[in-house]
Amino acid sequence: MNTASLSLPSVTVRPIAGPDELGLFLGLSYALDAELSADLEQGRRRPGWLWVAVQGDRLLARLAWWSRPGAAEPLLLDILDVDDTLPAEDRLAVGEHLLRTAMSAVLRDGAPIPEYTRFVPSDWRDRPEVRRAVEDRMAIAGRTGARLFVERLRLNRSPGLPVPAPTGRLVFRTPRGEEELTGLMARVLEGTLDAHSVHDLTTMTAQEAAAAQYADELARYRSPRDWWRVATLPDGDPVGFVVPAHNGYNPIIAYLAVLPEHRGRGYVDEILAEGTRVLTAQDVPRIRASTDLGNAPMAAAFARAGYVDFEREINMTWS
Length: 319
Prior knowledge:
four-stranded antiparallel β-sheet; eight-stranded mixed β-sheet; elongated; alpha+beta
């Protein structure tokens, strides 16, 4: 893009020089700002992954990628902001220029473009100023080829809420190793309503998708694996499983599933209750979870268990 098309002259686009310029980056605000300093220290972010568009001392736009500690390449684009006081076309133009320039410099040629994710209020569509800001950022990503992939519910359970006692219908134990858990993960992909899983199944078998998710996500949690639970009938027949974990930011229900042949019998409530009991026993300040907006059965199960829809997450992809 030719910056001459902007009504803003002398726009400079660059990465921050280092942690000392974090103050400049914080000239615009977003929910993840409080995590940036620790993320830089712990290797989840790099100065070269935090980019700004500036006019003199004025911050016009910014973006940041995130990844797991020590990763060579970014995993998510999770910050994309513009100065909302700019005229509409300038907001979009400067944001597009920043995003295209940073992507060209940071992302390896031919590599998949990291997903764009943004946390937004649950009622974002009903608040004109908030909706405009969200749609501006989506439009900026859209100008570079991204499309909406899925909207997700972000859920929170506050401490002090009662957790139902076990009913005795199910028996809970820890998984008997990676092979058992990935086998169960593959089985629950039948009929899945999770958009990412549905997409994975277009290019992988269920077992391959399960193995990839285990390696890329579950195996990386540093919280104890003896928190994980397989639910069985009293005769030992598996019904489902739950993976309570800590993702480095919050205690979470990382995975919750019921095997296809056991769905529709209320087992999801008992399995979720067990996962909630595991985390509650750690005296955690909250428990977080998420599910697709379109996954109504899972959303309803979380709601029955006291998990409140406090936020949404917009996911956009370039593939």
